[in-house]
Specification:
Radius of gyration: 17 Å
Strand order of the largest sheet: 3-2-1-4-5-6-7
CATH architecture: 3-Layer(aba) Sandwich
Number of helices: 6
Distance between the termini: 37 Å
CATH superfamily: NAD(P)-binding Rossmann-like Domain
Helix content: 25-40%
Number of strands: 7
Structural class: alpha/beta
Order of helices and strands: EHEEHEHEHEHHE
Largest sheet: 7 strands, parallel
Strand content: 15-25%
Amino acid sequence: MKTIVISGGSRGLGMALGEYLYHQGYRVITFARGASQSQIKEIVHLEGIDVQEPENFEQLEEFLSQADGLVNNVGMAYDGILATQGYESISQMISVNLTSIINLTKFYLRLRLKKRMNGNVVTISSIISQRGFAGLSTYAATKGALNSLTLALAREMGPKGFRFNAVLPGYFESELSKNLSEAKKQQIIRRTPLGRLATTADICPIVEFLLSEQSRFITGQLISVDGGLTV
């Protein structure tokens, strides 16, 4: 049984990923600042862990050292133009969406290398990183940086047997999309060839595929799950 650790797994896509992977036969550990909303008691959830504080990672050491895969799912969004976004908000978004993921990935790599074992990292990015969208400039910048991190680490760690890929979801029901007006949602749907927003059920199987042996020769890829919006 493979062990997978998911950051930001208390709700939303992180929780959906944890539940999906559990039903696919994985041992799942999630963590977040808050309590888990999942009803599946077999999923281990560690609460009170702020990814912005690397010293908190010590609580994850036992699980990360055993983890066949890490899903970097934690993230936050700010909906508003850059000219009115506060400096503190900008710093926090970079800290959560980028710096914390770099630090957590580093911690995971060191633990696995120490045990002379390989690993697999799937990072949740966004199509916003590839398609400009007004009001999401800082968010786009952090997600674009995650794409670059994925590509660089695929080359850097491939010789050690590690794989790195990123999944770029389109708009789906999340903390980001809930702030969209109905008119804006309909506009996005009209521009999407498959004619609807994504759901977590569209995204979870792609993440599971990248974590599985079925994708053993796939690394350094940015996979969009957006219904063709970025075509």
